User: What shape does this take?
Amino acid sequence: MTIGLSHLCLLGVLSSARLTLQASASTTAYYVGATVEYHPVTSGDNLTAIANENVKNYMKFLKTASENDVDIIVFPENSLTAGKTYPLEERSKLLPHSSYIPSPKDGKVPCHDQSTPVMECLKAISCAANRFNMYIAVNIREKEQCTGERCSKDGHNLYNTNVVFDRSGAVVARYRKYNLFGEEAMNKTSKPELSTFKTDFDVTFGQFICFDILYEAPALRLVRERKVRDILFSTHWFSELPFLTANQVQSAWSWMNDVNLLASGYNNPATGSGGSGIYAGKNGVLKRVWSEKATNAILISQIPKVIDGNRSTLNPTGSIIYPPDSVIPTVNGSEAAREQKLLSDYVLPYTTKMFVPLNGTSNATVCDRGLCCQFIVDSTHNDDLIKEANVRYYRYRFAVFNGIRSFSGKGTGGIEICGLIACTTDDVKTCATRFDTNGIVVHPTTFNSLKISGNFTTMANNIYLPINMNHELQPLNVTDFTFSMKVLNKTHTAMKYKLTKPRNDLMTFAIYGRNFTADGQPQTMGSSGERASSLCSMLIVLIAIGLGSPSVILSGSV
Assistant: This one.
């Protein structure tokens, strides 16, 4: 499975014959961007050989990109040096298969600079950037020789790193992932790096990796402090119901920050990994991919530039190209999953209330630990669709949470949520699951409109995302909703989120807030049902002594 030296030499020869391609100019209203959804080579014990096999496939994507006049392309996290991962005590096995990366300040071109000790796969990408006249962003495991108290005992630090090459093949940007998702064998920098670079088509990009998107630094700091409006995002995401599937997070983050986001996803449905897209902020999705089965794809689109705070007005053209298995053979013969195997959020600590569908308007107020949310629903319900036994259809709950969640045991984070979520049964435990993709699901309930409002915590550095998704796990169109925020005082901000077009296929519609000040604290545990029972018991006592009435108790889980 190894790549021969003759093949690497051929890449070097090809790079000397630079192709002359059309490139976007600094004066054009757009540039052409591309992202890759890639199901990588992972089998084998030699991680360097695996990287060399994957770079062969990268070259095929790059050739397709060059044929479509792409200016800049981003590849997924972990998909170059894919393969076996090792725990902290075995990190020595990773060192021989990791690459040194020169500082962007040095202006090195690894393609023809023999003094630059980078892995051959990275040299090949440097050569390709020169040959195809293209900016290329890739993710690789980086090693750095070090000394001092922040240095690992083996004399090296290992980083999950994005590196960007310009059209000449020079290293122009490097970012070392700060918010690690487990990754025990990896190091992180003393503080988050804010990695930016300016292109010859007069667009400044920032970059971050995967789990970073849920944190204040570096992601929000790039937008709020550096005023960056174009972001490269490489990811190996593990999608989770009901709020954190890949495309819904990408779309919501791009919309809320009104930035162009080029998201490139590692594709492996067996672990719930996949989902790529090109997004234009408040203008919505330009291209996106979500596949239940293993797949390879390249997404290409004209991307409107943001000039002086205003996004250029144009109707972008683009395409999604799925290379045949004969060209990129990583899917052919693989053990293809029938559908994405998704993670499930721990929803028992949420306070929820069952939505009883009807023809007309209803409302409910649900509170959890000081956060109260109001839901106003105008719905239409066709009961005839669900009269037969064993009919599959989604029920709905209003869900509110103001607490601390665990991210798959890799860390904890503060969360504030007001939302409507779909459940496969009346049991709250099923509100983080879905029906399998092989059977028929009927849609008895149509939401003609849905309004969610609440007074959330006012904090300078937090973020609230308008999360939404249909039954096919795709985000809604930006014309389907409105979202607004108004600071009331130093402690509370009023938020309103409205579904503006009828939908009978809602899966999730929620305000998803991150309270960074609570990160690292113990996870909120317990059952919302238990809390509701406790509230009911308290109510009985209060009524018995004449101090309460049913009207003052807010909705719990029923």
Observations:
- The chain has a mean pLDDT of 90.
